[in-house]
Design a protein that fits this description.
single chain; mainly alpha; 80% helix
Length: 535
């Protein structure tokens, strides 16, 4: 457990720095091109398209089959060196072809994503500079998963820090050259302006991928192109990847339709694709720092348990991961709901539509992280069929909900999208746990349900006290709106309210004698005692 703790701490710290820089990047972006309107939504659509394309083709395939395959390859005489070189070479060829096709189809893709005719030419120009990201997203995932499989978790987590730094530099350059202009016209975009905005974003992805090569020597690897793909057991991989590919097609097609619906709501003072992207970034802060960090550290170990047939240890690790995540995420969800308008105000003066969308996403935060743990558990068992089945159901619910959103007034479409995603994700999580329980012939769910109930009770008390604290904070400005008066006052209010809620949450869990909290407090006391003895 000590190694899991160290790995989780390393991953969480890298993710935290990356996310904070990501917030800085998003704040600069919204100052440069505004939070709402056709142009900002056109850029968001174009810049997010490469990630969607990459996800459809390969992201889930890599996550589902790569680490289990690499764990097996590590038992080869050469420690998996030859297999890894073949895999990276094959990946580069595939991603290169995909990038070329996506770039050529940029106009058609922007139409598919629902970009409005008035900004179509500008969106296509953004997309042409953004599409090379497909190749480098793929390369980053390949190189990072190789490092993770060798228990070298740090580089994969810290590489996005470099990406965000480069993106921030490009946005600062954009602001210096073109100024703060929340309102732009289509004719106000010369080629240099487009290049700095979209090209700077792509350059960050390039650096994020290539920097991982620098860490290979530390794990005893050396990359060389190897086109001898025979003997890679691609048929076995392909069988597993086939279900995952189908699953990703379902989810990403639903995602494309979601962007299309969001673009129908695009306009001044309304949350469109940029509003959804910004609130999703806030939503992903606790998800990435806590869920991804904990699960990434556990995933390799669960894969090893599955390989060795040690399913009792597998169940124990799954239960431990879920219980830790639920208790940590529950308070984060409560704080985000109470401070949703303040958090949104940090980014834009159009905080009201953004805040409502954020609440819609956050109500599904706890189920989503449990579903994430369960998905990775199924992947470590080599089961990609079950995730396809329950994700197909989830995607169908999303599509039906999005169709219903098209019948809402434009002001309510983005919140409707968020609530739809949360509801569908909750159903998906429930189904995923049913599939995992059947696969393992039982799970250690008693502790999981206890953690969920205790986390809910603690969050409920914290929410009530948080709302009282927010009311008090809002009186500081004399006009009843200190928490959203300025970006700085919003940050101050979040710190005050968050501290009150966290203290209340810890006290409730301590009163309930929650094992995970008691273990954490005992560990803290031991560290303090050691430090005092050292002095």
């Amino acid at each position: 457990m000590a190694s899991i703790g160290r790995a989780t701490t390393l991953l969480a710290s890298g993710t935290l720095v990356s996310r904070l820089l990501g917030f800085g990047r998003q704040w600069l972006l919204l100052q440069a091109i505004g939070g709402t309107g056709l142009i900002t939504d056109a850029f968001q659509t174009a810049n997010s398209a490469p990630n969607t394309i990459y996800a459809i083709i390969s992201q889930g395939v890599l996550n589902a089959v790569l680490i289990p395959q690499l764990v097996r390859a590590a038992k080869h005489r050469d420690g998996g060196q030859a297999y890894i070189n073949k895999l990276i070479t094959l990946g580069m060829v595939v991603f290169g072809v995909l990038t070329a096709i996506a770039t050529a189809l940029s106009p058609q893709l922007m139409t598919l994503f629902g970009v409005r005719p008035g900004v179509m030419d500008l969106a296509i120009a953004f997309a042409l500079w953004s599409m090379p990201q497909v190749f480098f997203y793929g390369l980053y995932s390949l190189l990072g998963e190789v490092l993770n499989a060798r228990n070298s978790f740090g580089p994969f987590t810290w590489a996005p820090v470099l990406n965000n730094i480069i993106s921030i530099i490009s946005l600062v350059l954009f602001l210096v050259m073109f100024g703060v202009q929340p309102v732009h016209t289509v004719g106000d975009w010369p080629a240099l302006k487009i290049f700095i905005l979209a090209g700077g974003s792509t350059l960050g992805i390039v650096a994020q991928a290539l920097v991982l090569f620098a860490f290979w020597r530390r794990i005893g690897l050396r990359f060389r192109f190897d086109f001898g793909w025979r003997g890679m057991e691609l048929r076995t991989v392909g069988k597993a990847a086939g279900w995952t590919f189908a699953m990703l097609v379902c989810t990403q097609l639903a995602g494309i339709f979601q962007t299309f619906v969001a673009n129908t709501a695009s306009g001044p003072h309304r949350a469109g694709p940029q509003g959804i992207a910004t609130t999703w970034l806030i939503f992903m802060l606790p998800f990435s720092i806590i869920a991804v960090s904990v699960v990434t550290a556990y995933f390799t170990r669960m894969s090893e348990h599955a390989r060795d047939g040690d399913f009792e240890s597998f169940r124990t690790d799954y239960s431990s991961a879920v219980r830790q995540i639920v208790l940590l995420i529950s308070i984060c969800a409560a704080v985000l709901i109470v401070t949703s308008f303040s958090f949104s105000r940090v980014f834009t003066t159009d905080y009201q539509p953004f805040g409502v969308v954020l609440i819609g996403f956050v109500i599904g935060l706890v189920p989503s992280v449990v579903g994430f743990v369960t998905l990775r558990a199924l992947y470590s068992l080599g089961d990609t069929r079950s995730p396809f089945i329950y994700t197909l159901i989830q995607s169908a619910i999303v599509v039906l909900g999005l169709v219903a959103c098209l019948h809402l007034e434009p002001d309510f479409r983005a919140p409707g999208i968020a609530i739809t995603v949360s509801f569908a994700g909750t159903v998906q999580t429930a189904l995923s746990m049913v599939f995992l329980r059947r696969r393992l012939h039982g799970l250690h769910l008693g502790g999981v349900f206890r953690s969920i109930v205790q986390g809910f009770l603690g969050s409920l008390v914290a929410t009530v006290l948080g709302l009282i604290a927010l009311y008090g904070v809002n009186q500081l400005g004399g006009h009843g709106g200190f928490s959203v008066a300025t970006a700085l006052s919003a940050i101050v209010s979040m710190v005050i309210v968050g501290a009150v809620m966290l203290a209340a949450y810890i006290l409730v869990l301590r009163g309930l004698r929650t094992p995970e909290l008691m273990d954490a407090l005992a560990g803290l006391r031991r560290r303090l005692a050691r430090s005092q003895r050292a002095e």
